[in-house]
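Good morning C.,

I know you're traveling, so I'll keep this short. The sequence:
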Amino acid sequence: MSEQNKSVSLENLPNASTQLEPLIHCPRCKTTNPTDADRCKQCGQVLLPGQAIGIRVFFFFFFMGLVFIFAYLMYMNFIRENAPNPDSFWLNPVSLGVGILLSLILGFVLPFRRIPVYKQYEKRSVRHLNLNLKQSISDMTSALQLAPDNARLGLLKQRRSLYEKIGDTVNADRDRLTLALDPDAWKTEGDFISVFSDMDGSAFSWSMRKAAIDNLVSTGVAIAVGYCPECKAVVVLNKDKKCPIHPNTEGREQELVIPADIAAGKLKVTTRIAKKVPLMAQELNRLLVSHEAVALAYCPQCQGIMQLDPQLHCPHHPAARLKDVEFCLPSDMEAQKRQMMYTYHTSKAIGTRYIIVFAISLIALVIVYFVLIK
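The tokens, ready to paste straight into the viewer:
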């Protein structure tokens, strides 16, 4: 999908107030379907788009055509009897051989590659911009949950614009703060400036991020929470990021949140400070016992993300070895479970990939040793 298609103007989109719920519009028969539907209830069309068959066929024949052209040039210039053997960078056996090899690889990889699921959700989100804005937001959220880190900034910017269009200032501010806090925010602009001027791109990116964060704090869009050692509690800090009761005490383990997320921000700070302050460890345990917070972790015996007891044990397998325990509010538990499960499967797939690459490299080294060296 081109950048031009992604940056669709939001000025003339339908009024979201008339859209009571997210609905998927079938691209074939135009029937509306529930937001969690996989296939159209009317015609059976798959509702999550992939790469069109026409594009796949085009890629295959295009690169196979290039293979034929390169092979023909190789034969005419170097293989046939009385070949001219031209002395040219573009017409030499190495360049033509590389062209044949790359065309063969691309001719089979591009037509049969699997489009990442997050890209499919992004594509469907863009398609629903003029059909159902709430469905567009739902799909963009799904794309964000599945996207790799290097794709999240662009998706966040698109979702923030959608929230602004429907007048959801809370979620728009949440995404705006997330964008400002991202260490890669303005990295592209910084790299561009460093190429065409003597300015340090990283310094520019840092200054832009700081200015954006300071603006959010000064306007009240974002507030800081942190641990006050004098109060011995996690408190909302003032604009100078100091305790309002003890103005000379700066908050520790600070977390920037929007006002609607104060409880979640306090929980994050409590979780981090509990490792250093026993009193806060007791507070964290109290939150778990009172069900004001939940603890989640992957249980290898349950093979899933489980809600832990206050002692941070799996309720079904208390002796199971758990790691990477996450804490969240009960209202965020299902979303957190989905994110943790996706992260687990992604890291497992990457680990398997490394093992395969290592094994292939080891086999290749053994073959080279015994065939060429021995």
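Safe travels,
E.
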